[in-house]
Write a structure and sequence with these properties.
The complex is a heterodimer of chains A (306) and B (328). With 306 residues, chain A is mostly helical. Chain A folds into two domains: 72 residues, no CATH class; 215 residues, MetI-like fold. Helix content of chain A is 79%, strand content 0%. Chain A contains 14 helices and no strands. In chain A, helix 1 runs antiparallel to helix 13, helix 5 packs parallel to helix 13 and helix 6 packs across helix 8. The termini of chain A are close together. In chain B, helix 4 packs across helix 5. Chain B is 30% helix and 25% strand. Chain B is α/β, with parallel strands linked by helices and 328 residues long. Classes of the chains: A mainly alpha (306), B alpha/beta (328). The interface between A and B is medium-sized, with 25 and 32 residues.
């Protein structure tokens, strides 16, 4: 088991290295000049050159890349071009906002998704199944921003029940959480349904019935427990996306999280901040995956003993 | 009264393209301490018959008629909970694929103990001790350690022993074994069959052994039923069946076993294949493959008739009986 975890961690390192490298060079390819943006449109060319030199952007790309890696290896993510504060501080101040929203959304998605999936599978072919399937289909196809705006119109503008945007109380959480979780709810529902339909046909479920196990336990211990194995992977992956991919939801609800910070930093060509953010996203994704793998091995002895 | 008395049992599958009469009116008895074999090709309805007795037929299949009297009660009339309390306690089942018939994520000890816990209130300690005893009874070495292992850590033969331990947990009076050795190596097959016979001798349980393998029948059973397309075509004590098979289908089945003491150029096989169950021939169901087919066979469905002590056969060669098929 320890070996298994160690191997998983080792695999994560080249992935992160690749992300750092890809992001660094991708940024050289897109148009836009950080120095010009910082100096402002009106500033004279000398001022822009001055800033460029201060930031070290006048050096060859490979030299900059080497310098960046050297700093990174000491745990230094650099300083934001626009705010002049350390990137680590910028990210840390907003990380919890994004993380708590992701946590709320994945919790909601897991509970609702699994429940709907179970209902759908157990009542296959009935009205309940069709209704759940329709909801899931809508959830997968509705654009996130549109749903967010629609809810805002209803609950904030018309009814005045919930704040339209911002961060603070639990009320602020309601709409962003729903918006962020809708796609995952639909995904987890479908996954649970198909997985459960597959397991209830397994020989061992029939064996359980043949030895007189109570129907409730046949469902919980034998069907559902096995059916949820692949669902844990989906839940983990979706959570990984949420930590890094809440860009649209955060933008719609003016949520002061990492997603909004990313949009801001890209607009300002704030290279160190963008790089820092993407590195954090990739790292959380790798860590979440690692946790899912460990959890999976814990739940499935066939993997543990390999 | 016999331990198990199946009368005119019918189980049909209601599919999109029509009704499949997987079991179409079979009747037989099983006494305590007896091992009764049911043989037939795949599609003959033998497995469905055994699942029908346990009332474990899955949708879209349904028992549509007949009765199954077990220890004096008609199982088909029992409520779900009553039926549950019988399964695993008075009657249990051993399945074909030991590898897929155990839950891969639960310890084997837990799965055996589950059979006990589903019917009796026992302490953890007691359940564990009884499970260990059962594992030793079916010949699992080092039960103390292996009780906490998972199914994938066992071989097929060992898993089948565990399945049998599970079935024996509460000393049932009927064990239904559906192809219990088909998935196993020949040497392991013999061990498992020996185990089943020993258990019959020590517990006086009746065993219903479903198989397609005439060798297994010869080695293990007291009496045999031959099924073809949902009906019983012949029934006889095992020695009688092998010495004097009456039905052309039974003769065909026995003829297709290679004999070691005769020089044979070709292995005799039954011509044709088992028909599509949706398009069963009228009259005798075997008529389109039968080498001795007569005119009457195409119109009249033969009924079982006695041709010797304990020997029944459904074939017009031994006197015309039965009813003209409605659709003929």
């Amino acid at each position: 088991m320890a070996r298994y975890i160690f191997k998983r961690i080792l695999i994560g390192i080249p992935i992160l290295f690749f992300v750092v490298t890809a992001v660094f060079f991708a940024f050289r390819l897109i148009p836009g000049d950080a120095a010009r943006i910082i100096a402002g449109d009106e500033a004279p060319q000398e001022r822009v050159e001055q800033i460029r030199r201060d930031l070290g952007l006048d050096r060859p790309a490979l030299v900059q890349y080497g310098a960046y890696l050297a700093k990174l290896s000491r745990g230094d993510l650099g300083v934001s071009f626009s705010s002049r504060r350390p990137v680590a501080v910028e990210i840390a101040s907003r990380f919890w906002n994004t993380f708590s929203l992701a946590l709320a959304a994945i919790t909601l998605a897991t509970i609702v998704g699994i429940s709907m999936g179970v209902v759908s599978a157990l009542f296959r072919g009935t009205i309940a199944d069709h209704v759940v399937t329709l909801i899931a289909l809508l959830g997968i196809s509705i654009p996130v921003f549109w749903l967010g705006l629609l809810m805002m119109q209803l609950f904030s503008v018309e009814l005045g029940w919930l704040p339209a945007a911002g961060y603070g109380t639990w009320r602020h959480f309601v709409m962003p959480t729903i918006t962020l979780s809708v796609f995952s709810i639909a995904f987890i529902t479908r996954m649970t349904r198909s997985s459960l339909l597959e397991t209830i046909q397994q020989d061992y479920v029939r064996t359980a019935r043949a030895k007189g196990v109570r129907e409730r336990l046949v469902l919980l211990m034998h069907s559902l427990r096995n059916a949820l194995l692949p669902v844990t992977i989906v839940v983990g992956l979706r959570f990984g996306y949420m930590v890094g991919g809440a860009v649209i939801t955060e933008e719609v609800f003016a949520w002061p999280g990492l997603g909004r910070l990313l949009i801001l930093s890209v607009a300002q060509r704030d290279i160190p901040l963008v790089q820092g953010l993407l590195l954090v996203f990739a790292t959380s994704f790798v860590i979440v995956n690692l946790l899912v793998d460990i959890l999976y091995a814990f739940l499935d002895p066939r993997i543990r003993h390999r | 009264m016999a331990l198990l008395q199946v009368t005119d049992l019918k189980t049909h599958f209601f599919g999109r393209r029509g009704v499949t009469k997987a079991v179409d009116g079979i009747s037989f008895d099983l006494e305590r301490g007896e091992i009764l074999g049911i043989v037939g090709e795949s599609g003959s309805g033998k497995s469905v018959a055994s699942l029908s007795i346990m009332r474990l037929v899955d949708h879209p299949g349904r028992v549509v008629g007949g009765s199954v009297h077990f220890e004096g009660r008609d199982l088909l009339k029992l409520g779900r909970e009553e039926m549950r309390t019988l399964r695993g306690r008075r009657m249990s089942m051993v399945f074909q694929e030991p590898g897929t018939s155990m839950n891969p994520v639960l310890k084997v000890g837990f799965q055996i103990a589950e059979a006990i816990r589903s019917h009796e209130r026992v302490s953890n300690q007691e359940a564990r001790e009884r499970t260990m005893d059962l594992m030793e009874l079916v010949g699992i070495p080092d039960a103390k350690r292996r009780i906490d292992q998972y199914p994938h850590q066992f071989s097929g033969g060992m898993l089948q022993r565990l399945m049998i331990a599970m079935g024996l947990a509460l000393s049932p009076s009927l064990i239904i074994a559906d192809e219990p050795v088909t998935a196993l190596d020949v040497t392991i097959q013999a061990q498992i069959l020996d185990l089943l016979r020993d258990l019959r001798d020590t517990t006086d349980a009746a065993v219903l052994l479903i198989t397609h393998d005439m060798g297994v029948v010869a080695e293990t059973c007291d009496r045999v039923i031959v099924m073809y397309l949902g009906k019983i075509v012949e029934e006889a004590p095992v020695a009688e069946l092998f010495d004097h098979p009456k039905h052309p289908y039974t003769q065909g089945l026995l003829g297709s076993i290679p004999k070691i003491d005769e020089k044979q150029e070709w292995l005799a096989a039954i011509p044709g294949t088992i028909p599509n169950p949706l398009e069963v021939p009228t009259g005798c169901r075997f008529s389109n493959r039968c080498p001795q087919v007569m005119d009457v066979c195409h119109h009249v469905s033969p009924e079982l008739q006695v041709v010797g002590p304990g020997h029944r056969v459904a074939c017009h060669l031994y006197g015309e009986t039965g009813t003209v098929d409605a659709d003929a």
